[in-house]
Amino acid sequence: HGVFLPVRMERYKEVSDRVFGIFRRYTPLVEPVSLDEAFLDVTESVRLFGPSEEIARKIRAEVRAETGLTVSAGVASSKLVAKIASDMNKPDGLTVVPRGKEQEYLGPLQVGRLWGVGEMTRSALAEMGVQKISDLAGIPEEVVVRKLGKHGAHLHRLAHGIDDREVEPEREIKSMGREETFDEDLLEILGLRKQLLDIATRTAARLRSHGLKGRTVTLKVKYSDFRLVTREVTLSLGIDDGGEIFRQALTLLDKTEAGKKPVRLLGIYLSNFGGEPGRDAGSGQISLFGNPPQPNVSAPRSPGARDSARTAKLNEAVDRIRGKYGEKGVRPGTLAGED
User: What is the pLDDT of residues 204-252, one digit of tens each?
Assistant: First the structure.
């Protein structure tokens, strides 16, 4: 039997604000990634506080002293490498990658560590004999581009440790979501629904990591002829549950030519975050994923009352498990075996 503790979002935000306040003692250039993760640009801070590694040590010490929390940090010349480095020694580690050593550090790691390498892309890279980041770096860029298009060029740069994106200080988030470009066009509606369920589940987890609920759900569909269409619905209350996001996206999918025309890309985005959190729509026995309809169901169930407090507790438990074991720690049964 699982033991589910009450969700304490206000407390999480309070502690998060304290931690981010410590970050800003050392630099104003703080880009939040979630309630408990951020990028810091300390380039102009070293004259005041010492080398970047020493700044990381000071921040970790102050967070522990003032909040009792541990912090894992990655120090590197780019956001990509810093992020990967910070994940290496959790929950209380410090990893430093010296400038000029980025490719050497990334090389032995699995290619899935790179941003933008999802299940479909990893499968396509495996067909090219790519397992590690060094394998990708060793292939001529034009070969990767022929296989993956412009996305391949971007991944090839990342495999060489090249990531020129700057740290962007906190700004209001207008929308949030995920999308997947398929290596082969999808026509079968069951396959499209499976992909939609996976995207909805990942989108929901990302929303919850930022403490956001969106009222507007937007479905993005690109056909094999590269024609792009979007469909959207605005709800009375914000949602962050994967099952409910999937239900709304499935309804929108029925308003496209998916299943009749081959589809190259699917995406789900949520926006309109100003709505007051409320009860989610749905019915039936609650599950870890809020009872998402199975992909072979032609339409979502009729809305009904649901226990949103229990849904929130279950989603919190799922997020904790995924935080420890990765995205596949818990996933909808329909997606089992889709690795």
Answer: 988 887 788 999 999 999 999 989 999 999 999 999 999 999 999 999 9
Rg for the chain (alpha carbons), in Å? 21
Q: Is 338 a catalytic residue?
A: no
pTM equals 0.53
Q: State the catalytic residue, choosing from 37, 119, 141, 232.
A: 37
d(CA 30, CA 227): 38
Burial of 236 (0-12, 13-18, 19+ CB in 10 A): exposed
Out of 1.10.150.20, 3.30.470.20, 3.40.50.300, 3.90.79.10, the CATH code matching 103-159 is 1.10.150.20
| Between 132 and 12, the higher pLDDT residue | 132
Amino acid at 162: I
Give the residue from 120, 158, 122, 127 showing the smallest Cα distance to 141.
Answer: 158
Query: In residues, how long is the chain?
Result: 339
Q: What is the pLDDT averaged over residues 265-283? A: 66
Topology of domain 175-335 in CATH is Dna Ligase; domain 1 (3.30.1490)
CATH 3.30.70.890 fits 9-97, yes or no: no
